[in-house]
Structure formats: structure tokens, C-alpha cells
Design goal:
The chain is mainly alpha-helical and about 80 residues long. The chain has three helices and two strands; from the N terminus they run βααβα. The protein has helices at about 10-20, 45-55, 65-80; strands at about 1-5, 55. Strands 1-2 form a two-stranded antiparallel ribbon. The chain is elongated. The chain starts with a strand and ends with a helix.
Length: about 80
């Protein structure tokens, strides 16, 4: 996972996908989930978790990831962030 402070997450997400990197968005704050809406939490109640969620992407990571795949992810991330 990488936190993208000072970058537009959607732009980075789309650029990485275009380069064949399967990034994703995870760690949705619990109070955003529909199941918990009835508890009365509002946007802004947990600003740190909301800020993290709005700026984080999950990078590919799995047990049999090859060195070439790791290198491709790293090079692609460098390319879109620089």
C-alpha cells in the first residue's frame, strides 16, 4: 500500500492501470459502510481515517510475485509519480 499525499489518487490509479498494474482501493472507513449508517456517524467524524482512505492505494502483493513483476510495479509507480 502507498499513501499518495500531494497527488490525485484517481489520476495515479488510472495511469497505473493503463500500465498493467492492478492497484486497488481498500480500507474504507467503517462509518462509510452502508451497514453502519444507522449508527448516526457522519462524514467528518473520523478525519484521520477519512484522509487516509482518500489518499491510499493498495499495490499488488502476493506470495508468488516474481522479481520481474515487483520491478514492473516499482518502475511504473516511479514513472507516474515523477
Amino acid at each position: 500500500m502507498v499513501e499518495l499525499q500531494n497527488h490525485d489518487r484517481e489520476v495515479i490509479y488510472n495511469k497505473l492501470h493503463a500500465l498493467g498494474i492492478g492497484v486497488n482501493v481498500h480500507y474504507i472507513p467503517i462509518h462509510f459502510h452502508p451497514y453502519y449508517q444507522h449508527l448516526g456517524f457522519n462524514k467528518g467524524d473520523f478525519p484521520v481515517s477519512e484522509q487516509f482512505y482518500s489518499s491510499a492505494l493498495t499495490l499488488p502483493l502476493f506470495a508468488d510475485m516474481t522479481l520481474d513483476q515487483q520491478t514492473h510495479v516499482i518502475a511504473s509507480l516511479r514513472e507516474v509519480l515523477v
